[in-house]
Amino acid sequence: FSCAGRDCTVIMRAAPALLAAKLAGAGWFELGAGVVLTGLLTLYLVTSRTRSVRLRQLAGRLQREVAVRRSAEDNLRLTQLVMDRSSEAICLIDRSGRYLNVNDATCRQLGYSREELLGMTVFDVAVETNRDTWGDRWELSKQLGSRSVEGHRITKDGRTIPVDITLSHIQFRDREYLFTVARDATMRRLGEQELRTARDLAE
Questions:
Q1: Which of 8, 10, 65, 83 fits a 20 to 30 Å CA distance from 160?
Q2: CA torsion 180→110→128→148, rounded to 10°?
Q3: What residues of the chain score a pLDDT lower than 50?
């Protein structure tokens, strides 16, 4: 402060005896506070490390799941590619007769797009198949496992074509399916008819 044109400073210091009396318990407080803080820090570090380990484990598990899913998707794409490269009409049908999957050859044979067929049933295209006898046909395929039949299919433009069909019953995860492979039998039956005609003429 300023007094009579001069700057003055007052310094006040506690006596050593007063300091000793006031700070006698400060050491225990500091020690306790240090122990608590050290414990909290240790707990934080342990928790952080545990969390880090869990995060690494979770990341590893997610990577494995992604790898498995990617492999499954690749297998599905490969299976669909193999089906589409086949010259035979391949279909997967559920117990209600609904098409679950078809290949490109089926689309070419019937004249429908894949999206159209996946919204249809076998009763829409198979001449000899109807809802009244479907259950019996399904049970027969289930008993035999696999069988071959002759039939006819109706194309989108209204034509009826003969087909040779191989049906295989499949059970997967408590569900049943029919896997069918159909070959256009027009040329074969035409050849058979010509042979019968030639035989009749010969006789």
A1: 83
A2: -30
A3: none
C-beta atoms surrounding 164 within 10 Å: 16
Residue 29 corresponds to which tokens in the numbers above?
Answer: 């407080």
Q: Are 129 and 123 in contact (CB under 8 A)?
A: yes
11 CA to centre of own chain: 81
pLDDT by residue (tens digit) across 29-65? 666 777 788 888 888 877 877 887 888 888 888 888 8
Give residue 38's pLDDT.
83
- Count the helix, strand and coil residues of the chain and give each as a percent rounded to the nearest 5: 55, 25, 20
Length of the chain in terms of residues written: 203
Give the per-residue pLDDT at 47.
Answer: 82
pLDDT at 123: 95
Instruction: Provide the 10 A C-beta neighbour count for residue 122.
Output: 20
The conformation of residue 88, written as its DSSP 8-state character, comes to S
Measured between alpha carbons, how far is 81 from 90 in angstroms, rounded to an integer?
Answer: 12
Q: Which two tokens stand for residue 36?
A: 């608590």
Name which of 119, 184, 113, 124 is nearest 103 in CA terms. 113
* Short-list 173, 43, 120, CA closest to 106: 120
CA distances from 130 to 27, 124, 125, 177 (A): 95, 9, 10, 17
